[in-house]
Amino acid sequence: ARVMEDLGILASSDPVAIDKAAADIINSEAGRDLLNEVNPDTRWRCQVDYAESIGLGDTDYDLIEVTIV
Fold first, then answer.
1. Mean pLDDT value across the chain
2. Taking burial as the number of CB atoms within 10 A of a residue's CB, which of 13, 17, 22, 67 is the most buried?
3. Section 4-24 average pLDDT
4. Among 14, 11, 28, 26, which residue's Cα sits nearest to residue 59?
């Protein structure tokens, strides 16, 4: 079942940054840690932090909004 409306599309060459940005956007829109609420056995923050620690990418990111008219 859907827990949130479509929030758009993200693109990045950094897999860690895009995962962190997606989680931040979802949780910001929900006003709570929706990812943890939906699946409390999945520790998404640990996964992102570990991926960064082994050099897969960076949790720091800049969002650039692109609007197509």
1. 93
2. 17
3. 94
4. 14
